[in-house]
Amino acid sequence: MFKHAQLQSVKAWMSDPAHGALSLHVRIQRAIRQLILEGALPVGKSLPASRPLALSLGVSRDTVEAAYSQLHAEGFIERRVGSGSFVSQRARHLPRRKRQREVLCDEPAHLSRRAMAVLQSGGVNNFQGPRPFAPGVAETRQFPLATWEKLERQVYKQYGTQALEHSAPQGMPALRSAIADYLNLERGAQATADRVLILTSSQQALGLCAQVLMDAGDQVLVEDPLYQGTRKAIAAAGLVGVPVPVDENGMRVEDMARLGVNARAVFLTPSHQYPTGATLSLDRRLQAIEWARQQRAWIIEDDYDSEFHYEGRPTACVQGLDAHDRTLYIGTFTKSLFAGLRIGYLLLPPSLVAPMTSARTLQDGHNASIAQLTLARFMEGGHYTAHVRAMRALYAERRDVLAELVHKHLGAFLAPCIPAGGLQMPCHFVQGLPEEAVVEAARVVGIDLLGLGSLYATPRNDTGLLMGFAAQTPAEMRVAVEALAKVFARVK
């Protein structure tokens, strides 16, 4: 028979809200199975008869019988006619599970060198919700959802159940064609549909480039400061990142030959350097292309938010200037549309289309067909460019509002550096403040910030904060800035 503690354990399992979706007999069955796995019910132990157990648990006898039948079918108990139910002899071979408090004392898992490198390279701040000042988060409340829904219904009507099937590994032809047309028109690229590879994100693209183009131990040139996701991709591939300083004109490419004698590639964010917002000058773009040609190296161009340039038209992409097919262009719809879409892409040199497609297929197969087909219609119908145009005007206004609010309420602590584009504004401390402490104190009151100092390869004195402005209205930013002023008053 059950001891009091065992009976209480079964009752606790049954009443746990986490198990509320399970039927009563399944909850009883799993509670008893857990007791067997933990060794609380040893081999040969007799179980209560179904009638008294049902009475103790406040359920019907049929419910207990159903639980016992399932335990018997799984081999956890034996049922003997005239004798009752007992923990099966097979249970002696079961590995004993430890309770949660014991598991916490276990030794840490043994990880590969690549995994350890990823952990040691620091965390990536994935700001998933539109909390105040989260960098890189777009406004979704003004997305034309009704239009999107209408186009999605059109896709279902045209394709039927075909829209539910696997996508082609490289991506749906309609979307690849729409992206190529857009890049040629808006970004000055050299694009054709057969060179576009559809992915889930720019982060996946960075990882593919790091793993497919280079071997562990190879050198790759990176901007300093650097986007954390790029640092993670480099660490995961076992590469050696060589930092190249950034100034007001972007990466100092004149230092590339000296610093990267054996480098196999360079990672660039030329439209809006992350996090400074600097735009790589034309002469430096041409120097980088010539370096890649001479070095037989690759340029990995991350054009993550070039749609949002507020001072004239954005500079043409590096890929469109490269006559030697040494540039891989990364784009994403996370910033221009919405993060939940989970569509990014690579524009590849012809020689890399097949190997990159194969490598991507081994990772996760393909993107959802329905989302690709809907996005293709969204772009073909002019809705994408119209939405980007509207958001560009909105974000420019919000950028200026944030700069004014920082000057007015936080001027004693921060000096904003107004960017020509992008979704975030770097703000430097005007007095010595502990960057990590400010970021943590702000997080506690519901404000997401990113420390600029954490993005540099080597410690620097010009620490500060990266503040997103795209996802918040002026009124929302005003409230958040006032709350942030109180944070600074406590931390200083």
TrEMBL record:
Residues 22-90 form the HTH gntR-type domain. It holds the Pfam family Aminotran_1_2. Keywords: Aminotransferase, DNA-binding, Pyridoxal phosphate, Transcription, Transcription regulation, Transferase. GO terms for molecular function: transaminase activity. The keyword Transcription regulation applies. Gene3D superfamilies: Type I PLP-dependent aspartate aminotransferase-like (Major domain) (3.40.640.10), Winged helix-like DNA-binding domain superfamily/Winged helix DNA-binding domain (1.10.10.10). SMART domains: HTH_GNTR (SM00345). InterPro entries: Aminotransferase_I/II_large, HTH_trans_reg/aminotransferase, PyrdxlP-dep_Trfase, PyrdxlP-dep_Trfase_major, Tscrpt_reg_HTH_GntR, WH-like_DNA-bd_sf, WH_DNA-bd_sf. It comes from the Bacteria. In the C-terminal section; belongs to the class-I pyridoxal-phosphate-dependent aminotransferase family. This is PLP-dependent aminotransferase family protein. It comes from Pseudomonas capeferrum.
